């Protein structure tokens, strides 16, 4: 085997094996079979030098090809690094990391194309690598985070915030009380998030929008680009429900209006409303663009429980004096709000 082919084979094995175990770990975390982010132990930190050792072995094999045992060792180190790479990464960052793994898999496939002298595999692998990388960069930009912050920034946060959450208290309200606040408000800002998508509540949101508009309540909708699970997720759903485009505010516009807004109605959004993103430098979501719902006169949050959102961090918004938690599935709760608002406004 010539050196170029041997080099391509080494790249293919290192990236292919690493991607394999990293993808299994990512699957385990997304299915909640494995815990979310945690710090690496000292031993794991030492072992995380595996990619350096695997690359050095790959380089050695390119020059002195033929050692099967060294080749196997290189594969083993790559498998181990795939596991260590994912351990410290939190759930919220998993889509970005999966997209990065797609990029590695593309590069591995292109290297395989070199080994097999298959042009189609080289082109397809190179395209896969570029697309994965571009999507990761778009997601990082939307979250206002760097790659290194995504890969190494979540250490130790989850346990600390979960423990803090147990000691705080919150207020909740019924659909009847919430509807009364809505129909008597002069301005309402609706902030949808992933939970609206999960519940498929967009058509009920449209009904509420129509009702409030009919009653003369100024009524706008806003979500940051990172709401949901992929770029444009919320826009697609709101467009599906024919919510007028001009009722959707820009982030800056929404945040400048919120201090004068009577009610911010958060529907299945969590991380994108967490004020920690503005001020808590230690938080894994620090710097992420959010809607400043905590600045509205009253905040109402529809979700099923006090569980954290995708980032796994507690939301300080829920413990403010002016926040009311509305517990329930987004679709049925917004449906109840519409019914109650109709009754209360004599409709
Ligand atoms: P999340 O922080 O994930 O919060 C969604 C909330 O919806 C959860 O707290 C959940 O609480 C609630 N929920 C789920 N199903 C529901 C249902 N059927 N009815 C009512 N509530 C429901 O979502 P977000 O605020 O939209 O933030 C997006 C997160 O994804 C961010 O952390 C972001 O960084 C990450 N992310 C986004 C992207 C892009 S590009 N959009 C890409 C990668 C990562 P309960 O379980 O208590 O109901």
Overview of the molecule:
- β4, α14 (276-279) and β5 form a beta-alpha-beta unit.
- The longest helix is centred in the first third of the chain and has 28 residues, at 3-30.
- Helices cover 56% and strands 8% of the residues.
- The chain is built from 15 helices and six strands.
- It has helices spanning 3-30, 42-47, 50-63, 68-86, 94-116, 119-143, 147-152, 157-166, 175-183, 194-199, 202-214, 233-240, 251-257, 276-279, 330-344; strands at 171-172, 187-192, 218-221, 263-267, 298-303, 323-327.
- The protein has a six-stranded parallel sheet with strand order 1-6-5-4-2-3.
- It has two domains: 3-152, no CATH class; 169-344, Rossmann fold (3-Layer(aba) Sandwich).
- The chain is of the alpha/beta class.
List the helices and strands and how they pair.
Elements: H1 3-30, H2 42-47, H3 50-63, H4 68-86, H5 94-116, H6 119-143, H7 147-152, H8 157-166, E1 171-172, H9 175-183, E2 187-192, H10 194-199, H11 202-214, E3 218-221, H12 233-240, H13 251-257, E4 263-267, H14 276-279, E5 298-303, E6 323-327, H15 330-344
Parallel strand pairs: 1-6, 2-3, 2-4, 4-5, 5-6
Helix pairs in contact: 1-3, 1-4, 1-5, 3-4, 5-6, 9-15, 11-15
The structure holds 7-thionicotinamide-adenine-dinucleotide phosphate (TAP).
């Amino acid at each position: 085997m010539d050196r170029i082919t041997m080099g391509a084979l080494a790249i293919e094995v290192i990236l292919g094996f690493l991607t394999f175990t990293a993808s299994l770990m990512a699957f385990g975390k997304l299915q909640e079979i494995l815990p979310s982010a945690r710090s690496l132990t000292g031993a794991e930190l030492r072992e995380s030098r595996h990619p350096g050792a695997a690359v050095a072995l790959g380089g050695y094999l390119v020059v002195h090809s033929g050692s099967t045992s060294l080749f196997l060792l290189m594969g083993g180190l790559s498998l181990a690094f795939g596991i260590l790479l994912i351990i410290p990464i939190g759930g919220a960052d998993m889509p970005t990391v999966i997209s990065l793994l797609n990029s590695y898999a593309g590069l591995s496939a292109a290297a395989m194309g070199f080994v097999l002298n298959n042009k189609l595999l080289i082109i397809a692998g190179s395209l896969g690598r570029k697309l994965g990388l571009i999507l990761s960069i778009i997601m990082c930009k939307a979250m206002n985070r760097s790659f290194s912050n995504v890969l190494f920034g979540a250490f130790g946060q989850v346990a600390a915030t979960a423990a803090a959450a147990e000691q705080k208290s919150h207020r909740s309200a019924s659909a009847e009380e919430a509807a009364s606040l809505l129909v008597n408000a002069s301005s309402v800002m609706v902030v949808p998030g992933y939970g609206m998508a999960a519940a498929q509540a967009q058509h009920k949101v449209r009904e509420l929008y129509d009702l409030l508009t009919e009653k003369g309540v100024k009524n706008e909708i806003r979500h940051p680009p990172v709401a949901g699970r992929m770029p444009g997720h919320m826009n697609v759903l709101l467009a599906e429900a024919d919510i007028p485009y001009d009722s959707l505010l820009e982030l800056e516009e929404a945040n400048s209006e919120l201090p004068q807004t009577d009610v911010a109605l958060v529907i299945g959004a969590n991380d994108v409303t967490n004020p920690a993103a503005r001020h808590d430098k230690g938080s894994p979501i620090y710097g992420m663009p959010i809607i400043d719902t905590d600045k509205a006169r009253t905040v109402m949050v529809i979700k099923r429980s006090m569980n954290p959102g995708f980032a796994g961090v507690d939301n300080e918004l829920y413990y403010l004096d002016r926040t009311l938690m509305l517990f329930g599935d987004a679709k049925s709760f917004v449906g109840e709000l519409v019914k109650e608002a109709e009754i209360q406004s004599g409709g």
